[in-house]
């Protein structure tokens, strides 16, 4: 495999991952104690979505990544930087917590560079034609990527994909699968997922992973949740490991408890894989993804 192959796949995946936006909303049933004191270790919180018909929930997502590969003595560095504005339009919501929303990416600023090639830059608000590498993203801006129905625990009960991809590259799903039981501080829950990787013979292999969430603290109405994911399927092939590490989510999520809205999310990657394409090959992957609420919930007329 040529040195550029890994980087082209990675940069293409980043562009696709832009369309898989990753927002999660939680709410907690609070005890009857006053809101100001810190919660005791015995207090438990019920995590549930709390969406309302007619809401528009907006986020800004920034993703930057640097990948260095060395294969047969040839070294190459690829870098990407993407800032996107996206939102959920909540169409309907029922008293039992079921909600239907549309996911839309409104605008994007993208930068990409591979090795010694000229850096590519494009903003969807510039009025300029996008480079070919960004054309797929450009065509889908402002359109409904998916219409999703979820229950109060965040489980998707129905999904219709219009233009987007389900690829997440470790950035998370559109919704988070929440625990059924109330949690005390320090308690954790796990969510199983699967990652598909391509073997050297072009066959597809499924790698099972586990995402572990821990309720770290609740302070002044904000819940802090840590996230750590790890593969459950044994991985002996370093070429497979190089694909998997880029899709594992590790970081921190902060939520507005009262309104059930994510305030921010940060995921970080710092991985090195030796021998992924031969004994002297090396891949270093450094990346960060941040997501933040950019304005208050906007309310519009409830749709029929």
What do these coordinates show?
There is one protein chain. The chain is mainly beta and 304 residues long. The chain has a single domain (3-299), classed as Lipovitellin-phosvitin complex, beta-sheet shell regions (Roll), CATH 2.30.230. 10% of the residues lie in helices and 48% in strands. It has helices at 3-19, 135-140, 238-244; strands at 44-45, 55-71, 74-93, 99-114, 120-123, 144-150, 156-161, 183-184, 188-198, 204-219, 222-231, 250-256, 261-274, 282-293, 298-299. Strands 2, 3, 4, 5, 6, 7, 9, 10, 11, 12, 13, 14 and 15 form a 13-stranded antiparallel β-sheet that branches. Strands 1-8 form a two-stranded antiparallel ribbon. A hairpin with a 5-residue loop joins strand 9 (188-198) and strand 10. The termini are far apart. Mean pLDDT is 81; it is low at 1-35 and 297-304.
Quote the beta fraction.
over 45%
Structural domain count: 1
Distance between the amino and carboxyl termini: 54 Å
- The appropriate CATH architecture is Roll
Assign a percent range to the helix content.
under 10%
What's the total count of β strands?
15
Major sheet description:
13 strands, antiparallel
Mean pLDDT: 81
Count of alpha and pi helical runs: 3
SSE arrangement, N to C? HEEEEEHEEEEEEHEEEE
CATH class: Mainly Beta
Question: Summarize this, please?
Answer:
The protein is mainly β and 304 residues long. It is 10% helix and 48% strand. It has one domain: Roll (Lipovitellin-phosvitin complex, beta-sheet shell regions).
């Amino acid at each position: 495999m040529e040195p550029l192959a890994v980087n082209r796949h990675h940069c293409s995946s980043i562009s696709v991952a832009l369309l898989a936006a990753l927002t999660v909303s939680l709410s907690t049933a609070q005890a009857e104690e006053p809101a100001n004191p810190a919660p005791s270790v015995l207090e438990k919180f019920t995590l549930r979505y709390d969406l309302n018909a007619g809401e528009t929930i907006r986020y800004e997502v920034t993703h930057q990544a640097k990948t260095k590969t060395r294969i047969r003595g040839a070294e190459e560095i690829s870098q990407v930087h993407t800032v996107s504005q996206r939102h959920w339009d909540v169409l309907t919501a029922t008293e039992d917590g079921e909600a239907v929303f549309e996911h839309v990416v409104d605008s994007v600023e993208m930068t990409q560079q591979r090795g010694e090639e000229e850096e590519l830059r494009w903003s969807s608000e510039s009025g300029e034609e996008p480079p070919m590498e960004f054309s797929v993203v450009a065509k889908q801006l402002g359109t409904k990527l998916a219409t999703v129905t979820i229950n109060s625990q965040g489980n998707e009960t129905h999904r219709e994909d219009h233009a987007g991809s389900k690829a997440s590259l470790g950035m998370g799903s559109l919704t988070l699968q929440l625990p059924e039981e109330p949690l005390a501080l320090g308690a954790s829950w796990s969510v199983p997922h699967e990652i598909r990787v391509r073997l050297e013979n072009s066959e597809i292999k499924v790698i099972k992973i586990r995402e572990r969430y821990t309720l770290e603290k609740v302070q002044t109405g904000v819940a802090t949740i840590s996230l750590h994911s790890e593969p459950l399927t044994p991985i002996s092939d370093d070429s497979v490991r190089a694909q998997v590490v880029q899709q594992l989510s590790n970081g921190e999520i902060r939520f507005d408890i009262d309104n059930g809205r994510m305030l921010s999310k940060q995921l970080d990657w710092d991985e090195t894989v030796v021998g992924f394409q031969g004994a002297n090959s090396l891949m270093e992957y450094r990346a960060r993804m941040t997501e933040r609420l950019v304005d208050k919930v906007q309310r519009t007329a409830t749709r029929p």
